[in-house]
Amino acid sequence: MKGALLDAVRLRLAESGLEPTPARVAEALRHEGRLLGDAEVLGAADRLRSELTGAGPLEPLLAEPDVTDVLVTAPDRVWVDRGAGLERTGVAFPDAAAVRRLAQRLAAIAGRRLDDARPWVDARLPDGTRLHAVLPPVAVGSTCLSLRVVRPRAFSLDELVAAGTVPPGGQRLLRAVLAARLSFVISGGTGSGKTTLLSTLLGLVAPDERIVLTEDSAELRPDHPHVVRLESRPANQEGTGLVTLRDLVRQALRMRPDRLVVGEVRGAEVLDLLAALNTGHEGGCGTVHANAASDVPARLEALGSTAGLDRAALHSQLAAALSVVIHLARDRRGRRRVAEVHVLDRDGSGFVTTVPAAVWGAEGFERAPGWARLAELCERGGGAP
């Protein structure tokens, strides 16, 4: 079926608001003065249904169980990440206008506006998929579309070991950190697997503990019987209704959490999180963007400054609140792995630094200078690494 005819049928169905069933596609074709065979009508119906109600040409990619990201940089440049780095696919859109239409439709499904006046969007689709899109001319040449897939279940720790994310035997150390109720953050770059690992670890929390999650975009899916999930909300077009992550952290503290979780620490909420971890809320955790575990104190210091907390006060709070940093990285082949585990210490000037306790090894974690300190913290809390 030619593009012009397909566009005409698409417009007719969109204006009617009806689902593109084969019968309705055939009727729309008759209105356009065309009669096609059953096979052609069914093919047109499948294509239109995918475009009008699904993710268009991207739908098969999103359905693949090992795909974590789908990225579109041009109509004929579609990439996926299956856990081993980006791969270019053979999927293509008819033209740049088709990419723009898909991005705008997905944004509308998420309840967001995407047009020339507001040329970007960051939102969550009803199935949990994370959507980010930028329209031209801000995105040069073509609409740039990024989809982050959230799987309906968390991986088990054994599955992460089998996948090479956790080294052989490394699950014992991670279980000990949880059993000892040590407060920790998982650090790493974008797409390094922070959310995946955190979901897995939260699934290991004792079933009689209450987990309260606070996230900008609900991505965590822990396999746990008692989870309360809170999600931030942007302001509406009138500029009202804003709910920030900092608001959620404050509300979570009033919900009797055994484990307070901040999906990603990225702003002033770091102040409320550190305050909570210093007032009896043991075992709290979250994720933070950082290039290395040793960079986490500086990263949190920068975030704390957005809340008006000076450097000395932030480091005092940090030293008492946080115990462990688990850092994820990608190797040269794009595979995610737990690169290192650090404990926190204070230098002679009173500022917090991190000390490597365990580093990645092909046959298991290799002990580093901070191992004795980590073992002591775990044993004191009732865990043994």
TrEMBL record:
<dbReference type="GO" id="GO:0005524">
    <property type="term" value="F:ATP binding"/>
</dbReference>
<keyword id="KW-0813">Transport</keyword>
<dbReference type="InterPro" id="IPR022399">
    <property type="entry name" value="TadA-like_ATPase"/>
</dbReference>
<dbReference type="InterPro" id="IPR027417">
    <property type="entry name" value="P-loop_NTPase"/>
</dbReference>
<protein>
    <submittedName>
        <fullName>TadA family conjugal transfer-associated ATPase</fullName>
    </submittedName>
</protein>
<dbReference type="GO" id="GO:0005737">
    <property type="term" value="C:cytoplasm"/>
</dbReference>
<dbReference type="GO" id="GO:0016887">
    <property type="term" value="F:ATP hydrolysis activity"/>
</dbReference>
<feature type="domain" description="Bacterial type II secretion system protein E">
    <location>
        <begin position="52"/>
        <end position="330"/>
    </location>
</feature>
<keyword id="KW-0184">Conjugation</keyword>
<keyword id="KW-0963">Cytoplasm</keyword>
<keyword id="KW-0067">ATP-binding</keyword>
<keyword id="KW-0547">Nucleotide-binding</keyword>
<dbReference type="InterPro" id="IPR050921">
    <property type="entry name" value="T4SS_GSP_E_ATPase"/>
</dbReference>
<dbReference type="Pfam" id="PF00437">
    <property type="entry name" value="T2SSE"/>
</dbReference>
<dbReference type="InterPro" id="IPR001482">
    <property type="entry name" value="T2SS/T4SS_dom"/>
</dbReference>
<comment type="similarity">
    <text>Belongs to the GSP E family.</text>
</comment>
